[in-house]
């Protein structure tokens, strides 16, 4: 008797084989979906929508090949998950292969090797660019001895990732061919079985079944600096708001809030370029710089205009040119989930009510429209932040003009505010291809505070603000266990596509969180641990302005205090430590984009290494006050980065400390 499992292989769409019942799936949002094929006499048959939004239909089919199309909202389309196609009567169809085969693979030794999985998801089929791809096979945990790649490609790297109930064998492949043909050899003791057995999977780089995800090379391991323009530096007092607070305080919630101004501007950034360069900054992420009535600028009035209190387009152009001369990249904040209530379209609705031609730009609840969350959808109920209808063609056309204008100045990317509150289809099908079409080397970073796997699937973004790293690192620096740090970071390191890992925005705080120093109760030793990890871990460190000189502050708005340029207010111990850690990172390719391996975890003691073929750095930390015995021998000679001493073994690590060893 044959047994069957759920399987979805690269040359076949998702199917469930049981007595030759085949379930066909369509997984994208739609109002109506029909299937047309030779098994429906080429007549449209309605598909059923599940509670999760997936469309499906079960057919009883014999072994063979079948032609089909989907009719989605009255438009014929191919199955986007199925690369196999064929012409019939002059029309291109997807081809479904139904095979009467066992989906448990028999083994000579024990009768069964187990379940294998290779589906059309980025987890298993992950194209980077033409000729480069990651391919993975998932098997039951502790069920097979090894998996080997067979095909017309070169394996750059093979790794095995272990999950609760399964193991994933992942291969990084390069091939000179347009079509990669491959299979997997599964080894179990003396038994070796090919999967699939009688044919090869095929991946056509000219017609990829999954879109390429090629993260800009320049972004890998780069050191970012986040600037909140209104609070960084006042370089031109002539453009100050009418009521400007004293830069050095005293501060109140009101003065630091949305309606409090201190006069920071773009000229201030220009005057600080030498400071940033000396610190070691390689990229700047700017909070919004477009015209707005607030100090935070997330309530945009005009996306096509630099806020007058920040400067004008000449100032912006000067800033761009001087940053580029110093090889510093520029990323702007894109706020497209909502506008401000003073945005021209919203103002037109206030004036003209039902006669406004911009009604479709927003989600109007009732008339008359007043400045109220009762009148229209808004961000978290704030009436001054009305939610934009990004599906409407007029809004898309406007956003296109915004992207085109500022990218024309040569910016290097966008950070996208409230990314999870905008439909993923907007990012995937509109924004991502729009930006990449202008400059394929531009970075797209989404603001999302949780597991961001879904944003890389189609894809929507190149990277995200890595709050998962922040949570794990601060939790550890506060006295957490090394085991928990490794577990919490592995949750995304082993789940996200490998090509994004070195570009993840590893931040310790931001304009939306308490300052890292405040979060760690002013403990400099704990801060050194957190910053030391940030500067040596997988990803791209993001420094929130002022952290490097010991600026403190609680939740918004206290985390937005002006940068104190008088060095009397600087904590020089913190500043010098940041500079030393940044210098370390910039000098070692292992820290920028090398491999990562945990060597030991014990109580609060964490030891990991970053390495390439020619460079290796070992990081040792202890998040707790009690020293921990490690008794680790080192293979080779190492130098302590801080003291310069030669180190041959690691007997113990002191409490609340971090030590960095460089292989000689």
Task: Explain what the structure shows.
By secondary structure, the chain is α+β, with helices and mostly antiparallel strands. Helix content is 20%, strand content 30%. It has 14 helices and 36 strands. The chain has an eight-stranded parallel sheet. A hairpin with a 2-residue loop joins strand 8 (64-72) and strand 9 (75-77). It is flat, with a radius of gyration of 28 Å. Mean pLDDT is 92; it is low at 1-19 and 100-112.
Q: What class would the helix/strand composition place it in? A: alpha+beta
In whole angstroms, the N-to-C terminal distance is 62 Å
Query: How large, in whole angstroms, is the Cα Rg?
Result: 28 Å
Could you give the order of strands across the largest sheet? 28-27-26-25-22-21-30-29
**Which band does the percent of strand residues land in?**
25-35%
Enumerate how many helices there are, as a single number.
14
User: What overall form do the CA principal axes indicate?
Assistant: flat
How helix-rich are the residues, as a percent range?
10-25%
How many DSSP-defined strands? 36
Mean pLDDT figure: 92
Largest sheet: 8 strands, parallel
Model regions low in confidence, pLDDT < 50 over at least 5 residues:
1-19, 100-112
